[in-house]
Design goal:
homodimer, 625 residues, alpha/beta, 8-stranded parallel beta barrel, 5-stranded mixed β-sheet, 10% strand
């Protein structure tokens, strides 16, 4: 009898072991426990590094050493073999980063030759658009992992560990459309708990704040940044926060944008608002990340993609030194393809951060396999990392077992961290190491699926909005196509017809010097390049130009033919991915993850066909007039 | 009034000039008439070379020279520039070949650096399966260009010129399923007319003969090759032929195969039959090409792919020296993919010719864009050209304006000639030069369409019969799929079910050492390689093995998954080609040819889907039992 019970128990255990829900992300190390790790004591961060290596490093001996003569940053030096691995760093966190690098090299079967690494960006932040009620704006992987007053500490620890493994060193815990309640004592105590869990992993917490918080909480009569009571409130609040969380990172602010309050409500400038907050945080070395995603306010009616520069350029130089302007990579809103935002050209005196969107709001959400690293690398072709003070990524993390909804969306979280650490890594290299750690190191699998990943964003652009088309999304949810989208009650800048401007004479948005002249916001040579038809890249053509349907492309095809070509090609590419995964990848992936990806690829093909058919049928009525 | 008439006339002329029906093939030279050509007189062949260069060579001066000190073959030496081009050859025909090489270099924008060329194969023949009533067996481009008693001499001249331009030096004018009437005086007089037209272009005529001709014409009582009256008849007939056509090439014979008469009808061997004919032709240096495509006769019941070796191997060494055995590239019948025919391994004493099929009997006929050069190059990976006495291609030529039905099928005629001249040319190089001469020299066009051409045969294999499947064709017409094909009244070897042998236990034809042992007919290392599952190329797997549906492929997928993968991939590839041509190639191609290819690509996509769906649905009933 005893034996039977034991057998049943083993079977149950085996079933659990086989249930590959993706929760382990790219950190699927086997606990080998072979290494003797010698390390300084007294640091929780070093303790974690030690434990990770003791559990998972497949070698004999490891030495972790603090060396204050090394540069004063988060970097490390690693030098190793099976017999002896030595990691040296100036700070504790460098040792932890080095430990994860060693485990990454091991999991991807790379040699541990001597190398020194340091992060390119000092600020490597996730932005969570998580609401206090557990919902997530543009979240597609379940509810928020930050369960206020019911924190799942192990989940937060798993989260911290995953982030530390890729070098992320800050988290903004709540939505930029922020609730004033976030800064109440009750919530701050919860924030402290999270901060305490994240701290040993080298991650600081930050909060998004509602600019009108003191007034909204009934503690001031106004939110005017020049008002003494308001300024005092913020100073006091900062003190309160830092008493709880001495390494609190600072505030992220969305002000006077899409209905959010801000200094403009009192005829004050963004600089006035940001500086007030900066002054409150300054004694504690806190920072203000002030978002440039502003439209429909002071420059209402202007081409939406121009408004950020119009708003902020005159203020450049007027911000206090602990203010950073945070700008989306493109001037509109995380479209599948945008040109870079000219804010990065026009803001010279104030530090800039780029805000990337890891969550696939406009790229198939958690249904489409779209690897975003190639898009981010495209941004870095225009904007030098050295020009930026930091990098933020809008997280795609939720309480779904696999964190991100789509197993392949984990790759975007991973790639964001890797690029934040080292933006010169190729997107292909990142895809390969992610696949190897997450699924299978087999070269056939890695070659084929990294190729799919590398192409996938271009496929998405093709079936959604090729040749510079943008914002043809259905209202509000931003998932499917709605080329005829127009609602009189909505701002015009939310309507697809405003962006594609298709009629019998042509299609596209004239932002050239004969149009809205948005091109003038770009530095040379891009300003001229985008302005002139002969030099404007064809993949941005309809972003900058309104052209007749029979416009001749460089290859001699007409614009209308080219649109049809791309829409079809996008569908064909997704069919290829689905066929490959469905019929060739099963052997490399556990059943559950294989099936979950397979189902989504089927949906992606159906969606791609819908995009193609709806858009081409809509445009056809004009193009084949 | 006069002016108006003239204008109308001009318009009509222009319309004619724009009607690009494809009749000009790859010889679309502009008549520039700039070159002074110095050449020996008195040879029609040299006159043609001179005229071609005078009309089309874009240079100042050309010298054509006969040099008897050069090797005694059809080769030439060419050395040129715009100012002076010199072509030297031992024979007249070498000068003509050199002239066409110069025009090819010019049309493909290549430099005329000094080069010497000679053909790899001495016999470079087209086999026309043209019947005397004008129909063509496996012809998909209209009726026969050989209109008996109503010869279109200009058409024959155009045909000769096109063939000479790619080095073809012989034509078998009539179907191997030959009519006895072919050798009657009336027809031979017509053959003489054709021979007279072809001769200056270096092309000899050959005829397919019906082995029972003397008996069928009522001139002997038997066709027994040992019968004195029969032997005398053939000797006399040979004399008659050579009196009319002194350079007549010889006979092509299909005997005791698929209902054709032959020496077996009199218990004589193939050697007896071939030698009788050889003896008749020998005084005139004529040859006999005796086809090895024999099954269902002496070795009825044996695995069909083995029968040719079983039949001919014992006779090796018994053929007179002007007999050549002509064998299809694969052991079955021109399937999209076959292994090479082991006849080439087993026949050592007798000269061999390979018979390729230019007409796409089993590869989509004149509806599918399938470029065959990659298939033929695959054959040459196994069979050294040096082992062969010649090469024959079953022509795809008919009276359609564009000669071949599908404009891209012209490329197969062209590629056959080019490979017959030089089998070491890459299929890609041939595709590129054909595209440049036939359509457009633009690099974007040539790159994209040569890529399509290069892949197209693999696409066809994928959507028709991947992984070594074969002969799943509909009965008789061999166009669409019929996996459940079985007709009790037909020979079993014509039935698809005989070849795929799909049932709940698996699929494929076991020709390994535990099956029909067809592998034993191959030389090492191929015999062992094909026999063993671990080494058998997967693209021939089901040709040589019967395997369970869940058999693990090298990449870990199951056989059934792999079949589905390939069928889908074949469809996806054709969709890609159609999308590319439809939306991107219009600018490079005249309207008529663009439209005609476009229509066929649409059909090809539909057909590919039909192949996939019919085959997968059929196999699914067993595979997903």
């Amino acid at each position: 009898m005893k034996k039977i019970v034991f057998t049943i128990f083993s079977v149950a255990l085996a079933a659990v072991a086989l249930a590959e829900d993706g929760h382990r992300l790219w950190m699927r190390y086997d606990a080998v426990k072979t290494a003797q790790v010698e390390a300084p004591t007294g640091s929780k961060t070093i303790d974690i590094a030690k434990e990770e290596l003791e559990n998972y490093f497949q070698g004999d001996r490891v030495m972790l050493r603090i060396d204050p003569t090394l540069p004063d940053d988060e970097g490390f030096t690693l030098d190793g073999s099976d017999e002896l691995l030595v990691i040296t760093a100036h700070h504790d966190i460098g040792l932890l980063y080095g430990a994860y690098e060693a485990l990454r090299l091991q999991a991807t079967d790379m040699p541990m030759i001597k190398e020194t690494q340091r992060p390119k960006f000092k600020l490597r932040l996730l932005n969570h658009w998580d609401n206090l009620d557990g919902t997530i704006e543009r979240g597609y992987a379940g509810e928020s992992i930050f369960e206020w007053f019911h924190l799942d500490e192990q989940l937060i620890r798993d989260y911290a560990r995953a982030n530390a493994s890729i070098g992320i060193n800050g988290s903004v815990l709540n939505n930029v459309n922020a609730s004033p309640k976030m800064l109440t004592k009750e919530y701050l105590r919860e924030v402290k708990k999270i901060a305490d869990i994240l701290r040993p992993y080298g991650i600081r917490v930050y909060l998004s704040i509602n600019f009108a918080t003191p007034m909204a909480l009934g503690q001031t009569k106004t939110a005017d940044p020049k008002d003494a009571s308001v300024r005092a409130w913020w100073k006091k609040k900062a003190k309160e926060i830092y008493r709880l969380i001495p390494d609190f990172g600072g505030f992220l602010v969305k002000a006077n944008s899409e209905g959010q309050p801000g200094p403009g409500d009192y005829n004050r400038s963004h600089a006035d608002g940001a500086n007030m907050l900066a002054d409150a945080l300054e004694p504690f070395n806190g920072i203000v990340m002030w978002r440039c995603f502003v439209y429909g306010a002071n420059h209402k009616g202007e081409d939406r993609v121009k408004q950020a520069v119009s708003e902020f350029q005159p203020l450049d130089g007027k911000f206090h030194k602990n203010v950073i302007l945070q700008t989306k990579n493109g001037p509109l809103d995380f479209q599948p393809r945008e040109p870079y935002s000219p804010v990065f050209d026009q803001i010279r005196e104030t530090p800039n951060m780029v805000e990337l969107q890891i969550t696939q709001e406009y790229l198939g959400q958690s249904q489409h396999l779209v690897y975003l690293a190639p898009m981010w690398k495209e941004f870095f072709e225009y904007i030098e990392p050295d020009w930026l003070a930091g990098i933020a990524g809008v997280a795609n993390i939720g309480k779904d077992a696999n964190w991100c909804g789509h197993h392949f969306s984990q790759a975007n979280w991973y790639a964001f961290g890797r690029l934040a650490w080292n933006p010169s890594l190729s997107s292909e290299k990142i895809a390969r190491e992610w696949l190897e750690q997450t699924f299978n190191i087999d070269e056939n699998f890695v070659f084929l699926m990294s190729t799919v990943m590398e192409e996938s964003r271009e496929a998405c652009v093709s079936y959604m909005m090729p040749l510079g088309l943008h914002h043809i999304f259905k209202f509000d949810h931003h998932y499917g196509p709605e080329p005829d989208g127009f609602k009189a009650e909505y701002p015009l800048e939310w309507c697809p017809v405003y962006y594609h401007k298709a009629d019998k004479d042509g299609v596209g948005f004239d932002r050239s010097s004969t149009g809205t002249n948005a091109v003038s916001q770009y530095r040379e040579p891009y300003s001229s390049q985008y302005d002139k038809l002969e030099t404007c890249p064809e993949n941005l053509l309809l972003w900058f130009h309104h052209l007749p349907w029979d416009y001749k492309m460089k290859d001699g095809s007409t614009l209308w033919e080219s649109l049809q070509y791309h829409y079809n090609q996008g569908v064909i590419m997704t069919e290829t991915y689905q066929n490959l995964w469905h019929n060739k990848m099963r052997a490399y992936v556990d059943d559950q993850r294989w099936r979950e990806v397979d189902e989504r690829l089927k949906t992606q093909v159906e969606n791609a066909k819908e995009w193609r058919d709806v858009c081409l049928n809509y445009f056809r009525q004009f193009a084949e007039k």
